[in-house]
Design a protein that fits this description.
alpha+beta; about 15% strand; 3-stranded antiparallel beta sheet; paralog of FGE (formylglycine-generating enzyme); 6 helices
């Protein structure tokens, strides 16, 4: 297994510095309270954030700390393609990937018709694909094959997620809220279902990678890419796919409290990055062991990929 103390950049690549985008479109005048029909009421009270035992050192997973949460409502699933399509139809919003004209696609999903693509340095499994966006997830002409109304919307930036959340009268969750909801009332657990580790053979409680990353995915869990947003058993609060499937944007900046010089140097290159939680269908214990509740990742707010989504929080 790779050294768990070494930060891994497998999760979400950043756009080049020269591709800094304008701010997201202002659609605040169209906002209204549109709580998802399956939104779950999450009780407030004492809660936990983090873990006693960090699996990826220097990611800010530890320590385990106590906090207090106010009650809130949260989507039982991440926002689906169908829900996002309704948002686009109602507002005319244009996503950042559409404005840039390109997005990141995992190498195995790039169609042959696209031709040669540009790899991301050090994470060559990510490729720049012109014309990839939330409709044509893997590139031009891929909507019919890859886009499913009940799957999570992907290829959405933090700014896109913020715009959608405002339109429905909600917001993105904080890290504490996300972890509180993910724990499902079970306290200090590693996964939404408890402590048993997923494996490549006979226990797949979530949609992650099986096989040898990034070359071979056996898809033992039945999915090469995303699964339907409402799939697998829900956790104790009734939330689906809290870990695996797609990374979920939070409202918070990506911060790590550390006195270590190499951590501070890494964070210098991540100014403005936002915190994502939950891991994705590309995670595997051998490399990106981030499908745990306490795991965290920092992502450039204008980055868009085939494994990044979000869910929305509303007030009680």
């Amino acid at each position: 297994m790779p050294d768990s103390s070494k930060p891994k950049s497998c999760c979400t690549p950043a756009r080049p510095d020269q591709d800094v985008s304008d701010s997201a479109q202002d659609i605040s005048h169209l906002a209204a309270l549109r709580v998802a029909p399956d939104a779950v009421a999450i009780p407030g009270g004492p809660s936990l954030v983090g873990t006693r035992t960090a699996e990826i050192l220097d990611d800010g997973e530890d320590p385990l700390r106590k906090t207090r949460i106010k009650p809130f409502r949260i989507g039982a699933t991440t926002v689906t393609n169908a829900q996002f399509a309704a948002f686009i139809a109602a507002t005319g919003y244009v996503t950042e990937a559409e404005r840039f004209g390109w997005s990141f696609v995992f190498w195995a999903q790039v169609p042959e018709s696209v031709g040669p693509t540009q790899a991301v340095v050090d994470v060559e499994w990510w490729r720049r694909v012109d014309g990839a966006n939330w409709r044509d997830i893997n590139g031009p002409g891929t909507e019919e094959e890859a886009w499913h109304p009940d799957h999570p919307v992907v290829q959405v930036s933090w700014n896109d997620a913020q715009a959608y959340a405002k339109w429905v009268g909600g917001r993105l969750p904080t890290e504490a809220e996300w972890e509180h909801a993910a724990r499902g009332g079970s306290g200090d657990v590693k996964f939404p279902w408890g402590s048993e580790e997923p494996n490549d053979f006979d226990f797949q409680p979530c949609n992650i990678w099986q096989g040898r990353f990034p070359e071979e995915n056996t898809a033992k869990d039945g999915f090469v890419t995303t699964a339907p947003a409402k799939h697998y058993a829900p956790n104790g609060y009734g939330l689906y796919n809290v870990v695996g499937n797609v990374w979920e944007w939070t409202t918070e900046p990506y911060r790590i409290k550390s006195l270590k010089k190499h951590v501070r140097q890494r964070l210098e290159g991540m100014k403005g990055y936002k915190l994502s939680k939950g891991g994705s269908f590309l995670c595997h214990q051998s490399y990106c062991y981030r499908y745990r509740i306490a795991a965290r990742s920092g992502t450039s707010p204008d980055s868009t990929t085939t494994h990044q989504g979000f869910r929305v929080v509303w007030p009680m």
